[in-house]
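Blackboard transcription, Thursday session:
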Amino acid sequence: MAKTLVFLEHHEGQIQKGSLGVLAKAASVGEVAGVLAGSGVRGIAEGVGATVWVADDERLAKPLPQPRVDVLAKLVRDEGYDTVLFGQSVLAADVAAGLAARLDAGLNWGLVDFDGIQGQAPALQDTVVVDVGWTSPVRIGLFRAGALDPIELAGATEVKDVAVELEEFSTAAEMVEQAHAEQQGPSIEDADVIVAGGRGLGEPEKFALAEGLAQALGGAVAATRAVVDAGWYPYSAQVGQTGKTVSPKLYVALGISGAIQHKVGMQGSNVIVAINKDPNAPIFEFSDLGVVGDLHDIVPKLTELVRARRS
Amino acid sequence: MKIAVCVKAVPDAAAGRRLDPATLRLDRSVELAISDFDTYAVEEALKLKEAAGDGEVVVVSMGPERAMDALRKALAMGADRAVLVSDASLEGADLLGTSKALAGALAQEGADLVLFGQQSADGGGACLWAAVAERLRQPVVSQVSELTIDGAALTGKRQTEFGYDTIRAPLPAVVAVSDAINTPRYPSLKGIMGAKKKPQEVVAAEGAASGTTVVALNPPPARGEARKIEDDGSAAEQIVEFLAEKRLV
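(Written on the board underneath:)
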């Protein structure tokens, strides 16, 4: 039976749902404890329903990966955990890979399931589902975002302290600003129809095409991480792993390749229509209607036809 | 300033990417190309070198010997030389083996800055840099969409699930850049011609044991009925018909 340690990621005093999902999965296949690292985080452990190791130290105040590798590596060694599991995030991926190298432990990523011995991970844009295993004494797994439901554990919460010993190189990086949210924009979470734009729009001004179609359909406009990061559209409109998760009745993807990071934020949509000029774009693998063509030709016509139909 | 850029030669998208049912590994017998995401890291290295006025950009990769052909694209963009770690014992290496092989070559190079792209186009674990940084015992900053170097330190801005972070770290350091950081240049004809003459070194390395294994391949879950059409001028009409069928317009 697996003896598992689960990384509990937290933000503004809340443990992330993804971490709680992984905790519940681990509890269903063996013995489990969580680990919380931060500054002044003891209170967050309340009500978790399992043993929670708390590494409370000012040097852990900012969510940087390398000091967390030190904390987890020590716990694995001292307490004999054979499995360490994470829910996907920017922070968790870096902690997991650093820990893998530190412990010479195998790391499987993109997991959607784990039975205590093997995991399952869709690969190559979800065209194949791989049963993965480990050959190292310690197994590390990173679950895909949103793969597991956060089920509450009914057990008693036992908080245990971890002595924090950090490597010099682990504390070299310094976070000078954290979680700064840039620009405000429309809310997309409650929209029935979403028209989303990606790099295929070509330039920021072409978001007008997405806006026109969204207006005709009575929907909201969303964007991919790539174009938000490039400053084309506000962060609040971003769909995907590091953005919002949406499930509208209709999702129209314009010039979006369909990388897995985007897919996890919109795959719950009822109907997905994609327009992309690249016939090999992964988005066509999970669209209900895929259109290979130039969106700059198609969208203006489409907008006009929708307007005419609805008026 | 010396900058090392870690790149990966992946099966070309047009050639198709598949797992070989016999070896349970990615079929790499097809044409290989440098992973698109890595060209952003190459571009950023070239920009930093140009801004500094001098320096060296070294492309470092692990793969079969014929991967050198793919690395030449980075040389054509302007990188100065390429180092390819290649060894039969590294075939099928996972994160452990790959990070060890790359860290070994990078330790030899002693670069001030090691750059990665945001993910590989095939494996897509998007975390190799953290394993390499751990082995080099250097600070790591990932998903960086704005990078500045001043003196002996770097500042990176990056997006996470909660907003934008700004992180500073002393050099030497490992940085993974996002594809929002720049627009990679196309190699010029002169660059392509000159690439062949640039130093290209293949080095051997002991393969490290992998910690993971592929047990079996399964088909993906069945999906509902899906249609794919090619625009012949009537795509807009066809989309509206489809939406009407689904009662969405």
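Lecturer's comment: Chain B has a mean pLDDT of 94.
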